[in-house]
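Consortium newsletter contribution from the modelling node. Members have asked for a concrete example of what our holo predictions look like. Here is one, prepared for the flavin-adenine dinucleotide complex that several groups have been discussing at recent meetings.
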Amino acid sequence: MTDLSVPLEEIVGPTYVLRGEAAEDFTHDATFMQHGLLAVVRPGSTEEVAAVVKLCAQTGTPVVARGSGTSLVGGPVPLAGGVVLSLDRLTRLEIDLPNTVAVAGAGVITGQLDEAANAVGLMYPPDPASVGMSTIGGNVACNSGGMRCLKYGVTADYITGLIVVLASGQVLRLGGKLRKRSSGYRLAQLFIGSEGTLGIVTEVTVKLVPHPRHRATAMVGFATVEDAARAVSRVLAAGHFPAALEIMDRGALRLVSDLLPPRFDPDLEAVLIVEQDGNHEEHVQLDLMRIVELLEGADNRVAQSGAERDRLWEARRSFGKVLMAMPHNYFSEDVAVPVASIPEMIRRVRRLGAETELQICIVGHAGDGNLHPTIIFNDEQRPLVSRAAAQIFRDALELGGSISAEHGLGALKRDYAEAEHGVEAMALMHQLKELMDPRGILNPHKVFPEQPADDDFLNRMPGWFPDPGLRSRRTEAGV
Ligand SMILES: Cc1cc2nc3c(=O)[nH]c(=O)nc-3n(C[C@H](O)[C@H](O)[C@H](O)COP(=O)(O)OP(=O)(O)OC[C@H]3O[C@@H](n4cnc5c(N)ncnc54)[C@H](O)[C@@H]3O)c2cc1C
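And here is the predicted structure:
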């Protein structure tokens, strides 16, 4: 591979090229995958991104776009080495109130975008649990979702414009501040969910919506997980689409038990956290009470103040952080099934846990059928994880679902892509990739299957769990 260090420094300045130890935080993401790289480059503008990509195109050097590295599928891990292009310096943010849109550099942290919108009475709804860490560019690349997506939709539903640097280094400006457009192909959508394999997003324009003035939240407990899952279908079928409808099973509750409301029945098998929002306080409260009634839980707590509401949410939002601080490893699955199939999916995951003796906790955005069965394991159990993950993929597909509702395929799920999409759709995706990135420099080894979709697929994955010390360094780094 060509030594690019000198030309890279000429493009972005020596301060913004990292190598060796200084680049180590960029060799991994929030999973346990890690791979060495040539250099990390931190461009300060779309033009600098274009110049770096052009240089990489001329030399055939792999380029991996990176936001905050919170991917749960190995997405930004540079499995072919090369250049990691960190977008963290692209942080310009404009809230355009008359047009109710925001224009954000790809490196803007999504939570900061939402806070800036809140300050003028607006909101950017897609809210991955990583909203305080992940970037809007990363969210676009993964079509991220979150807790409010049942009512408000996912990242793709909010994008009106993108600036993208193509694999040749050419800059493409797509869309803009219009909320409606029906002139030609919606090319911007092609890049949403493309995980850095078709282009590098440098700027994003998103629609904003009015920030609801009132929220009401409750935690409802159930004697069985199936009762909780069935209650979700009952609420939706009755015509209620709350702002959030989250599920946590007993395994997940135990991990955050310190954060549960005082005297909440500890023997419950599952809880649903439900939130209703709107502008009329009384209506919001009434709607929430109707939903709580429909849920028919064994125990419930309706938050009586903002502080109580924050506490209910803290239990759910802390799950990821608690996992990351544990001495065990974990693999967070991200399947979706039709809502009516949630009870069957949960039954299958629990059976799998019993068969393999792996601890599998379930949290999820139950309102849209998105479950995160999370496999917690120690080093000796490592070989079992591959089989369990494969079985969860197959079960979700058998029930008419998807292997990824919001995290993307990255490296860790790519081998099951064809099982979900079929040969013809994957062939078309391949053709698009070849057309847009003929030398295959953009994020190699991601999205497209490379080895058999069998029970051993993870055990053969390069860069999988290479370094036991990585865990503590990653936690210190905040991802
Ligand atoms: C505790 C925790 C909770 C999470 N909760 C959720 C959740 O609720 N919902 C959810 O959807 N996800 C969740 N995630 C996963 C993750 O946060 C998302 O996938 C997020 O969108 C990644 O953003 P990032 O900036 O960290 O991107 P990175 O991890 O750096 O990159 C992710 C992928 O996007 C590509 N990419 C990044 N930036 C660009 C760009 N500018 N142009 C082109 N490609 C790019 C990378 O190459 C990579 O393939 C969670 C992760 C953690 C650690």
